[in-house]
Amino acid sequence: MKLYKLLSFSFLIATLTSCTFTENITINENGTGKFSVDMDGSALMEMAGDQIGSQMGADAKKDIDSTFTFKQLFEEKKDSIAKMTPEAQKELKKLENFVVTTKMSAEKKQFLMTMATDFKNVNELQDILQTASTLQKLEGGANAGPLGSGFGNNNSKLSYTYDGKKFTRKAVIDKQKLAEIKKDSTADMSKMMFASSNYVIKYNFPKKIKKVSNPNALFSDDRKSITIQYSFTDYMENPDKLNFDVEFEK
């Protein structure tokens, strides 16, 4: 299966229902680290694996265990990318080093996808999910937003900061765009589609955590990691609910 076809189909599954999205960040002592977004659509495969398999035709007869970089994908779509604006091409270039791993089995009712990249400084991740929505502009990419049409594009600007003493995750909402979407007749349909999906944040730090501004944060035994679960509806409609600060022990 061609990379773009596989990616588009994977993203299409993600726009359906009962998916868990997990945003992972691991920061090392020197400030470098790893960022990833995981999508687990196994619940959907459990409910509708046969129908999904029939849509994929011959590809459904074999399990998929695929790993590729966006750089490879962009090479496959270079003609389409050449027609994009310089601004859009610059945005796509930010995604070149992302590695996409997909595991799908209709028989095992399994569907897992991960987009991951390394970073030298967490500040490099500013608005990375919004940037990924540029994929929709690729030819034939109506469903090719990262992990679903619209995922990442929740009408906010997301930023991360870390200085060794404090970590901050902050999304600033574009209220005008959000108001326009709520007027859209498809908004209620989208809300229904994601009603049973969750957005989970899992962050790992090199230092022990003193406190977190979100009272729902769960700590690891060593107090160096936190997990916070939100509804996906909040991620899309109230992205500032996912804002929080982490302070570390000295």
From TrEMBL:
Keyword Signal present in the record's keywords: the answer is yes
Where does the UniProt annotation place the signal sequence? 1-22
- UniProt keyword annotations, A-Z: Signal
State what protein this is by name.
Lipoprotein
Species this chain originates from: Flavobacterium crocinum
